[in-house]
Design brief:
alpha/beta, TIM Barrel, 8-stranded parallel barrel, globular
C-alpha cells in the first residue's frame, strides 16, 4: 500500500519530561506518556498533571501529538478519581488516551466522547472480532499484539482501515515472553501486577540451569523491525511504536532519530539503511524480528538480561581478551556520554512553561456519574461449575449438578472436526474459549459457534465474545478478560449482551466485596484452579526441557504435550506446560484454592469454578477429582463442614494481596 506522510506515524515513548523533549527533538510524530497514576509504567518517572498543558503546547509547536496512557485495570475505589482525571483531560488539547480497562472505555464512550480512545497492547488484540469489539467501545486505533507475523498484521490492518480503525505495531524495544495483559507472574509473586503497571519482570530472572543448558530460559531479545519498514508500510500499518518509557532520554533520542531517518528515506524513495550500529550502541539485549517473519523459536532468546551493547561490539570486532573487552566498554561509555551531552544541548531550549495549573487534589467532581443499578448479592442459590479439557473426563463428571465447561484447545482449526463431533455428541458441554485465537483459529471459533449454536459459552477472548453476541448466544466473560470494576460489568452487559462474568483472579476480598453486579447478571469466582502465570506463542520447551527443533513448526506443536518444572533462584518453581496446540503456558507450582470466600462473602457469587484440567502442579487432592467436586458442591450449597484438607499444598495469595 502506498504511504504518505499523513498516513505514517512514528510514535515515541515519554517516560519523563526529558525523554519527551528528546523524542520531540529526534522527530517523533507523537509521544505517549503517563501521569502519576493509572498507567502501565509505574517504574517510569512519568509526568504530573500540572505539566500536561505545557508539554502538549510544546509538542504541538513541533507537529507532534500527545497521547496519555491510562492503560491499567481500574479498581472500584478509583472510579471517582478516574472521572475527575477524565474531566481534566477533556479540558486539555491532548490527542488521545490509551486504555485497557473495559469500564474506563465505557466511561469514555458515554461521558467523555471528545477524547479519542486507543486500545493498549494490554488489550491483547490479534483477531478481527476484537477490532469490532473495540470499535463498539469507541476505539479508533488499536495496538496489535507483538506476537503477530507480517501476514497476520496485514490482514488486521486492512480490516481496520475498512472499519475506520488505525493500527499500531511495536517496532523497537523490549519483547515480553507472554502475551500482554495475560501475564500474572509478577502479580502472583509479590502483588506487583503487570495489569497495574507494576511488573517486576520475573521472566528475566535467573533460574537453576535448565536441562537445555540455560540460566535465563524466558529472557527474550529485544524487538526491532528496522529492516522491515517497507513490509510494514505495505501491510497498511499506520503507527510505528517505539517501546521504552523506563528508558533514559539518550536512548529515546537515539532510537527515534534512527527510525526518523529510516522513515524519511522510505518516504523519499531512497534506499533504506541496513546499519543498526547506532541502535546497538544504546541499551539492547540483541535484536530479533522473529515474530514478524514467523521464525518463532530459540534464536529469539538470549541468556543474559543485561545490556548487550559491549558484547555486540566485541563480537563484531573479533575481540576475545578481557583487556580488549574492557577497552570496548570504555569506548561505548564515551560514545554514550557524547550522546547524552548532545541530547541535553538539543533539548535545552525546549520550553514547557504554561500558565495553567491542574491538580486532582481538592478538586470536586463536576460531572456526577449515574448510580449503577444492581446488587452485591446473587439472586439465586450458589452452585459449582466444573472445567475439564480431556474427552475421557466427560463421563467422570456426568452426575455433577452444575455446568460442565470444556476448555477448547488453542489449535481450533487443526482439531476442528474432532471438536465439532465432541460437542455434537455431548450437548451438555459448555465450550470455553481461550484468550488467544489468531487467524485461522479465530475463524474456526466463529465457524464452531455458527454450526453448533450452543446455548451458552465462556470466553477469555473478546473477539469470540463479539461473535457470540452477533449470533445471540449467551456468553460469560472468562477470568482472563480481567474484569475488576462495576462499570466493566455494566459495559459487558449493556454493550455486548454478556450474561455473566468471572471476576479477575487478581482481586482481593475487599475489592470483590465492593463490586455492584448488574441485575439479571451472573457473577462467577474461580474457587479451585491452576494459576496461569504466562501465555506465550513461544515453545518454551526449547529453553527448558530441550528440543532439537530450533523453530516452532505447525507440524510439531499440535502434537506436542509435555510439562517441565523450572526453579527460579528468586522464587518458587514454575511449571512450563506445552499442551497440544500452538501456545505454551507457565503455571505457579501450586493451585489456587480459596474456600474461605464462601463464608466471607456469602451470597456474593452465583457460581464457583472447580478447574479439573490435568495441570500437574505440586497440589494434591486427598480424594479423587470426582469426590472432591461432590464434596465441594455440598459445601458451596450449605457452607457447612470443613473442606480445606481436601486439597494440600495450595495458595490463595490474591485473596489477601489483590491489585
Amino acid at each position: 500500500m502506498p504511504v504518505t506522510e499523513k498516513q505514517f506515524e512514528l510514535l515515541a515513548p515519554g517516560g519523563d519530561l526529558e525523554s519527551i523533549k528528546a523524542a520531540i527533538a529526534a522527530g517523533a510524530d507523537a509521544v505517549y506518556c503517563g501521569l502519576d497514576r493509572f498507567n502501565a509504567r509505574n517504574r517510569a518517572t512519568n509526568i504530573s498533571l500540572d505539566m500536561l498543558d505545557g508539554i502538549t503546547a510544546l509538542a504541538h509547536r513541533h507537529d507532534c501529538e500527545v497521547f496519555i496512557t491510562l492503560n491499567v485495570l481500574i479498581l472500584e475505589s478509583e472510579i471517582p478519581a478516574v472521572v475527575r482525571l477524565l474531566e481534566q483531560l477533556a479540558d486539555t488539547d491532548i490527542d488521545g488516551v490509551i486504555v485497557q480497562d473495559l469500564g474506563l472505555a465505557y466511561l469514555l464512550k458515554h461521558y467523555f466522547p471528545t477524547l479519542d480512545v486507543h486500545a493498549s497492547t494490554q488489550a491483547n488484540t490479534h483477531n478481527t472480532g476484537q477490532f469490532q469489539f473495540l470499535k463498539q467501545l469507541g476505539a479508533n486505533r488499536v495496538n496489535l499484539s507483538r506476537e503477530l507475523s507480517l501476514e497476520e498484521i496485514s490482514e488486521l490492518a486492512q480490516f481496520g482501515r475498512q472499519h475506520d480503525m488505525l493500527t499500531e505495531v511495536f517496532v523497537h524495544g523490549s519483547y515480553c515472553v507472554s502475551f500482554s495483559g495475560l501475564c500474572y507472574a509478577s502479580s502472583v509473586r509479590n502483588g506487583a501486577s503487570g495489569n497495574r503497571g507494576r511488573c517486576s519482570q520475573p521472566c528475566r530472572d535467573q533460574f537453576e540451569t535448565t536441562a537445555a543448558g540455560y540460566d535465563f530460559p524466558l529472557n527474550m531479545k529485544d524487538n526491532t523491525a528496522f529492516d522491515d519498514l517497507a513490509a510494514l508500510a505495505n501491510a497498511g500499518v499506520y503507527s510505528l511504536k517505539v517501546e521504552g518509557r523506563v528508558k533514559k532520554p539518550h536512548y529515546v533520542f537515539s532510537v527515534v532519530d534512527q527510525w526518523r531517518q529510516q522513515i524519511d528515506r522510505y518516504l523519499d524513495n531512497a534506499p533504506l539503511s541496513e546499519d543498526k550500529s547506532a541502535l546497538y550502541t544504546v541499551f539492547n539485549r540483541d535484536f530479533s524480528n522473529g515474530y514478524l517473519h514467523g521464525t518463532i523459536g530459540d534464536a529469539m532468546f538470549i541468556d543474559n538480561p543485561r545490556d548487550h551493547a559491549a558484547q555486540h561490539r566485541a563480537a563484531k570486532q573479533g575481540v576475545d581478551t578481557a583487556d580488549e573487552f574492557k577497552a570496548i566498554k570504555r569506548i561505548l561509555y564515551r560514545e554514550k556520554t557524547a550522546i547524552i551531552n548532545s541530547v541535553e544541548q538539543r533539548t535545552h531550549a525546549l520550553d514547557v512553561s504554561t500558565g495553567t495549573t491542574r491538580s486532582l487534589k481538592g478538586q470536586q467532581q463536576q460531572f456526577k456519574l449515574p448510580t449503577l443499578s444492581g446488587s452485591q448479592c446473587a439472586t439465586t442459590a450458589p452452585s459449582s461449575a466444573i472445567l475439564i479439557s480431556q474427552p475421557q473426563q466427560i463421563s467422570e463428571f456426568t452426575d455433577t449438578t452444575g455446568p460442565l465447561y470444556y476448555q477448547l484447545p488453542d489449535s481450533l482449526a487443526h482439531q476442528y472436526d474432532a471438536l465439532l463431533a465432541l460437542f455434537s455428541d455431548n450437548p451438555q458441554l459448555i465450550p470455553w474459549f481461550g484468550p488467544v485465537l489468531i487467524g485461522k483459529d479465530f475463524q474456526a471459533a466463529q465457524q464452531l459457534l455458527e454450526t453448533l449454536k450452543p446455548s451458552r459459552i465462556v470466553t477469555d477472548n473478546s473477539g469470540v465474545a463479539w461473535a457470540a453476541h452477533q449470533l445471540d448466544i449467551d456468553w460469560l466473560a472468562g477470568p482472563q478478560m480481567n474484569t475488576t470494576n462495576s462499570w466493566a460489568l455494566h459495559c459487558l452487559k449493556t454493550e455486548f449482551g454478556c450474561v455473566g462474568a468471572f471476576v479477575s483472579t487478581e482481586l482481593n476480598k475487599r475489592q470483590l466485596k465492593s463490586l455492584v453486579c448488574p441485575n439479571d447478571f451472573e457473577l462467577h469466582y474461580c474457587l479451585y484452579q491452576p494459576v496461569t502465570l504466562m501465555t506465550s506463542r513461544q515453545c518454551l520447551l526449547q529453553r527448558t526441557l530441550g528440543c532439537r527443533k530450533p523453530l516452532v513448526k505447525k507440524g510439531c506443536t499440535p502434537k506436542c504435550d509435555k510439562q517441565v518444572t523450572v526453579q527460579s533462584r528468586n522464587d518458587e518453581p514454575w511449571l512450563v506446560d506445552k499442551s497440544s496446540g500452538f501456545l505454551s503456558r507457565v503455571y505457579a507450582h501450586r493451585h489456587h484454592f480459596n474456600p474461605d470466600v464462601i463464608s466471607a462473602l456469602p451470597g456474593r457469587f452465583s457460581h464457583y469454578l472447580l478447574d479439573m484440567r490435568p495441570i500437574d502442579t505440586s497440589t494434591t487432592l486427598a480424594v479423587s477429582q470426582v469426590q472432591f467436586c461432590q464434596q465441594m458442591e455440598s459445601f458451596i450449597a450449605t457452607a457447612e463442614g470443613g473442606v480445606a484438607a481436601l486439597a494440600e499444598n495450595t495458595m490463595n495469595k490474591s485473596w489477601h494481596k489483590g491489585l
